[in-house]
Predict the 3D structure of the following.
Amino acid sequence: MAELILQDIRKSYGDTEVLKGVSRRIADGTFFTLLGPSGCGKTTLLRIIAGFVSPTQGTVHFGRDDITRVLPHERGVGMVFQDYALFPDKNVFDNVAYGLRARKLSSKEIQRKVPEYLEKVGLGGLESRLPAEMSGGQRQRVALARALVIEPRVLLMDEPLSNLDASLRVQMRDVIRSLQLETRTTTIFVTHDQEEALAMSDEIAVMKNGCIDQCGAPADVYRNPKTAYVSRFVGSANLIEAEFLEHGLDGVDRYRVQDTLVAGRTMEVAANGRYLMIARPENIKIRRKDSDPVGGELEGRIASFQFQGYRTSFHVVLKSGEDLHVETVGEAETSALGRGDNVIVSIGEKCLFVPEASA
Amino acid sequence: MRYLGYASTFTLLTIIGAATNATAGEVNLYTSNSEDAVALVLDAVAEQAPDIKINVIGGGSGSLLRRIEAEQSAPVADLFWSSGFSTLAGFSNLFTAYESPEADSLLPALQTESAPWTGTNTHVTVIMVNSDVLDGEAPQTWEALMDKRWAGQVTMADPANSSSSYAQLYGIYQLYGEEGVRNLADIVELQGSTSGVYKAVAQGEYPLGMTMEYAAQRYIHGGQDDISMIYPTDGTFLSPEGMALIKNGPNSEEAKQVYDLLLSQNLQEQLFDLTFRRPSRADLDDAIANSGLPLMEDINIIEVDETEAGEQRDYLLELWADARG
Amino acid sequence: MNRFFPWGFLSVTALVFLAIFVAYPILGVLFRSFIGENGAFSLDGFETFLTRGKYLEALMNTVILGLIVTLTCTILGVFLAFVVARYDIPFANIVLLLPLSVLIIPELISAQSWVMVFGNNGLITNLFKALGLPFPRFYGWFGLIYVMTLTYYVHVFLAALAALRGFDHSLEEAGQSLGTAPFTTYFRVVFPTILPAVLASGLIVFTLVIGNFAISIALAQRVPLLSVMTYRSFISELGGNPTMQSTLATVSILLVSGVLFLQKRYLSKRNYQMVAGRSTPRIKLRGWKALLISGGAGLIIVLSLMPALVVLMGSFTVSRGPVMYWGQFTLEHYVRIWDFNLAVIGNSLKFASLATGLGVCFATLVSYLLVKKRSVFSPVLDYLLLLPLTISGTVLGIALAQGFNSGPIVLSGGLLMVLAMMVRRLPFGVRNASSNLHNISNSIEEASVSLGVPPVRTFFNVVLPLMAPGIAAAAILTWVTTVAELSASVVIYQAGQETLPIQIFRLISSDLMARASAFGVINMFIILVPVFFGIKVMKVRLFSS
């Protein structure tokens, strides 16, 4: 168990800079997620923490120990891989016991700990199975047990749920999170799936092109995206060009969006003065056009919609030609709307404004 | 506890073994002769010099001689048996002369006073014939053989590679000079090795081959009826082979006993019966007659000066290469 | 962090080994072909090659032979592969054993046994003679083409079979639905896609033919061939100037390098990977077609396996000197071996075990380095590993003998033999050992390291067990080829170090076929036992690559 401190981590391969100065202090016991698309550097960062990649610059500390130059097998990290990486020729018991044996634990100790952790992951009694005889979900649990049984200082997880099917993924989120809370292991979790990130993490770092764009608790990142990129990566967002008009007294600024006035918070000042409005689909109200739009409202037409049971998803084309994605929950007035209907969409006050350059 | 018992027994046996070995003599024999020939030697030694144990290293004579040469500074070999005289000449610095009491019984051509080796047997050059593929009458002389009608139907070994074949070439050169060499070059096709000649004739690839008596006799004696041989009446040549005592060999006294044995009448007769190579002894006419081969006196042998042959080698091979084109 | 140890260090070590024992000797040979009689630079060797004697003829014959045999092997191999892949024939199982039979029967024995059957004193020849019919002469072109085809067609067969089996049947059905009849479809769709594989294996056959020693020296007779001439030059130049042998060896190297270059340039680009698809259902044959095709396949099978039977029979046949009496049987040849020649068997076992052991260890290490631990040294390692492929056994033997009989490093025959056997096999050993490596994901090793096991121990704990099938295949194939190795060892060996193939070679040279056969049977037995054990007991798959 340790606090993990990253200081100005940079990594270049030849002329390509993959990590451009990442610094972060991660408290002991945190479930910390690195979220981003492929190529953003999240896996590289994870591997630097693991020791499989050396940073071009910067340091990694576990607590007070500078482990930047320490060899990977001496770091005491536990690692869970996307493809589980179970040793195919060894059974479940031997897989889980592997790290313990490397640490020269007594066979009595091993006999005690392995079943204990297998119970924790819900695989009690399956010690003699071979990996080939198990399902994906089971294998991942074995991998988890194997990594945790050695009581690592840091647990590193590299997209561990990507190879599982949807329902299993959801189930495993719970397993992992519960275990992590129980063992209170500092965990670095890499994923490109924002749902996972939101569901499991204490903190999320949204990464883009080798940098952390924004870092914070899930709710914070979701409700207060500082950049257009973050807004689209965590949750979905409609981004429309907005023209700054004036500052407001209560921190709520006024903007012109198309031909209407919208008020909302400015997350960051744009150097070139160009802004985008972030409007989440679930925060936009939609109704049949029976009058002209007023402030904060725009006119459009339903191009298509998808009924999905508890919610309905609308694709609206605004009068200006831009696309808007609107989601409504429940039936309400929207059940009567159909393709081609003229509608009024209302942006409301939960919209935010960010520099256009931050897309 | 058991292991201690085994270990001490083992040690005791080794000591006894070593002690016994110390009293018995050993001879390291490097030989190019076939195993059954060597077996005869081993039997003879077991009978007549039972104290001597022979360690046999077999191989081609060339590779054996090179090995002896490589071991010069700390000789391992005691006795080398056998190779052609001209080949031995090239390694004479490795040998030491030994006057065996049996030497008087040898044919004069095979006694070599000035050289540190002694003849053990001799080959006779013959024309081997395969009547199955022969068109017409077989030539009875070298001159007849070198007639243009036999072009492409006669084979011999490459004189550059084979010492016996070189001896044949030298013989022809002695008989018919440069013209003879050219005529021969015009009609003959070469084999890469000595054995290739008799194999080719036996297989019917060629009706005629210049090879050695013992090789043809193997097939005749073996029962292949289409094979016969001709001793050219204008004269044929011997290719003597000998053995040598290695200089500073570790067991030279015992080696001399084996040396003598190899020249003894009994063993030479046995070896002749087995290999058909004419013995170096002069007193085995009965055995030769019994085998069906002609007696030495009944063959027209052309004397060849081995030293001359050696000295002319480069010149003759040049001439040959030139004649072959 | 010291990233150089241990893998970088091991890479360099492997590199140094290959540089000393592969590159240096070969360069030595190339170098010496430009040194003349008096030790100075000269082109005499090449001049002689181009103007004198039969050298050019030998080169031409060699190339022509290569082309003809490649053609016949292709026809035979593709035909058999087609039959096996497409039709449900009765002896399909035996057919799949064919590659094994070629493996187990050394070339020398194969040539020898065909001589015993078709040579002038041969079984069939005598049969024909007794019936009053003529039989064509076996030595020369007929024998060479016949025996080499039967020996090498297996390469094309395997390649074509793999390609045909991997062929997605949906493609054919697509072709047919687009309007072409089945046979035309076959021609237009299937055949072109398997062509690269077939051509690639054809090139392998070509290089094997031009470097072939055993069959050539047994059967060439009046036909001058490059490999035979190289060997003869070596023998005649012993103790003297190695000019001609080096020149001929250089020509041989250039020839094969040229072929390999062609292959890299034109063929490796066009390898069509089949996305996993449905395989073609097998058709059951009826009527005269069934008879014809089954008969043809059956004949090929019988011919492939015949040498083993002939040699077996020959080993028990009475012979007086060189003359064989077929029909009369004896055990004396085996008794003789027991009495006199156990040392030869011992030599074979000794050298082959050492070569196999060392070779497999080296191949395992190098394959791991090349697949998993690539570094700046890897391309050089790749290249050095290709070198043994460019040279025939004879050339390698000559190179090693020349390189190490004097100079900075002097090695004796035994060690040199082991080295020659090992080096010849290395490229294939690496390929076998690495066959599983690509399937072992990197994350497995990283998992082990993250759990606290250092890299080298991780290799032994985790990677090695998973490489085991590939390593086993490498071991068996290396054993098989080293026990049967002739062309390099016959050039290197010293008196007292004769192996079984060398002994057989010498006996064949003396025309003692029956005795040679007895040794041949023993040779095959020694090869067969580990192969059998490996396949039946350890379930090793020898031909998965």
Remarks:
- The CA atoms of residues 146 and 308 of chain B lie 24 Å apart.
